[in-house]
Amino acid sequence: MDGYKVEIFFSPEDDAYVAQIPALVGCAADGPTGQEALANLREVKDAWVSAMQSQGHAIPPAPMSLRFAPPQKVFGGKVGMAAV
């Protein structure tokens, strides 16, 4: 969702799935399924951003996400030479 991390979880007390963007405090939506909660969050996010901007608040940028590749296998064997 525009680079923002989204968390989706089931809330037993609400008996619904909740989708939220932790970087945008208070930006959350719910729904009967995770997919519907996510769809609702897309609409809520736009309204949340508009409301914050209209009140003069800065919108936090999406946090940078880094992924590290697994270590490459390092060759540690012997090299042999053969006459051809």
Relevant terms:
alpha+beta, 84 residues, 3 strands, single chain, Double Stranded RNA Binding Domain, three-stranded antiparallel beta sheet, 1 helix
Could you walk me through the main structural features you see in this protein, from its secondary elements to its overall organization?
By secondary structure, the protein is of the alpha+beta class. It has a domain at 7-54: Double Stranded RNA Binding Domain, CATH 3.30.160.250. Helices cover 25% and strands 17% of the residues. The protein contains 1 helix and 3 strands. The chain has one helix spanning 34-54; strands at residues 7-11, 16-20, 28-31. A 3-stranded antiparallel β-sheet has the order 1-2-3. A hairpin with a 4-residue loop joins strand 1 (7-11) and strand 2. The longest helix is centred in the middle third of the chain and has 21 residues, at 34-54. The protein is flat.
Instruction: Please count the helical segments.
Output: 1
CATH level 3 topology of the domain at 7-54: Double Stranded RNA Binding Domain
The arrangement of helices and strands along the chain is: EEEH
In spatial order, strands of the major sheet run 1-2-3
Question: In what range is the share of β-strand residues?
Answer: 15-25%
Q: How many extended strands?
A: 3
Given the helix and strand composition, which structural class is it?
alpha+beta
- Uncertain residue ranges: none
Provide the CATH architecture of the domain at 7-54.
2-Layer Sandwich
From the N-terminal CA to the C-terminal CA, the straight-line distance is 59 Å
Assign a percent range to the helix content.
25-40%
